Amino acid sequence: MPSAAVTLQVDLFGEVPDEPVPMRRSRVSNNPLCRNNSGTARGRRVNDLLRSYLRAMSNRSNCFAQADALRAAELTVAAEEVRADLLAGNGDANAVVRLENLAARAVRKLGLDPEQAKPRRTFADYAREKGARKAGNPGSGAAP
User: Fold this and answer.
1) Please, what is the end-to-end C-alpha distance for the chain in angstroms?
2) Fewest beta carbons within 10 Å, which of 65, 82, 93, 123?
3) Model's pTM, two decimal places?
């Protein structure tokens, strides 16, 4: 029986193919959400943040991007938990500042586009603006 092992062919410039077959990738690379327990509030929050970060990223299939997004989500949740402990009267303000700085740097490293976070115009917005122009409201740019 032939072996099922896949060997990577390296070309003249030392390049390897972009994506190995899924059976040769790690479980976390194939499904970044598998690492978190969705049965806990913490796990659900990490999963929500991870999905949001990956949706906002342009290159979400890259393993490095997935690792960075997972790191940012986990650090953000850790910072939220430490802040909640501090507000409850337990905890250290220095730990809050450190974790929030780490989380902010991790999110900034993702290179999310702030324009993408803005809500998009809907048809209702367009119709409202068009109606305002027809009514001749000041500032709408329509001639009286």
Assistant:
1) 84
2) 123
3) 0.62
